[in-house]
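[retry 2/3] Glucosamine-6-phosphate deaminase: previous attempt timed out, resubmitting with same input.
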Amino acid sequence: MSAALPGESCERAGGIMSAEVAEQSAVLRRILRDGTPGIREVAAAIAAREPRFVLLTARGTSDHAALYAKYLLEIRCGLPCGLASMSTTTAYGAKPDLTDVLVIGVSQWGGSPDLVASTWAAREAGATTLAVTNNPDSALTAVAEFHIDVLAGPERALPATKSYTASLLSLYLFAEALGGRDGAAAGDLPDLAQRVLARTGEVRALASRYRFAERMVIISRGYGYPTAKEAALKLMETCYIPALSYSGADLLHGPLAMVDNISPVIAIVPEGKGGEALQAVLARLRARGADLFVVGSQAEVEAASAGFVLPTDGVPEELQPILQILPLQLLAHEVAIARGQDPDAPRTMAKTPETD
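[retry 2/3] Glucosamine-6-phosphate deaminase: success.
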């Protein structure tokens, strides 16, 4: 069974996911052109309130986008951030004082009952609330004070792809505007994304290497860590491969013992401080004879067993996650096809789960 290419019939297995992955360059361009003014307006209104802390709420793929926003807001804006445990309010009835706190709910569809309930509870507790969704008519949008539409367009495949990168770029532009910057560094992303997505054949060849994998480990550090978590989720939900994601630092605190020369390790190696911090981990993995697949620079790929070279020369480290996930989305799609599965319709998945 071969993968459906962009432009082929979506009746073939994986055709819808493949088509939506291929749309991402256009989606990024749309956000930069049409979404930036509204994002700046929202950021200005929130900045005027001078929030002292940020809480991010999300689940699944959106949780990884929220983790990316945590890195952005702490590093770029100097705002302490936390990832909220929604059950503290929805199940346990906690009533924290959220005065001067910004609560950001990130969700593709914005319909998860616990996310909606926790956002409403946060607003009643004094928080400034912001919904970041791909659905301006959602329940989450209705209960939040502010909204950012990530403009990804309808996403029909069950695995989220274009809504994830759209959320990353929208959150980047929001953080930049909140910090008084224009986000102009993102201007080249659509063209760079198109270059990556044009290399589907390269990823398809790599996928044959991993079609029989029984387990994978995905690691990164810094801004790349959310990419590791999202890549693991994509492999699990489309290929049914147990995929464990770790910060490189955490891998050394015990889990390194499970690494051998059979189960592949995927390392997302950013160009910047995150990549520098990962070097000691990569050395340990090579010493153990790991089957190491690297997403990163030419030099990093050449030092690994296999990999995908990213066009990130001159791209700020904080923007690289938008490119890093693209070959890994393609890999999940191609491995699923190679294993005889349909990535458009993963078993047990629903588009609007009870907890999003």
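[retry 2/3] Glucosamine-6-phosphate deaminase: The two ends are 32 Å apart (CA to CA).
[retry 2/3] clearing retry counter.
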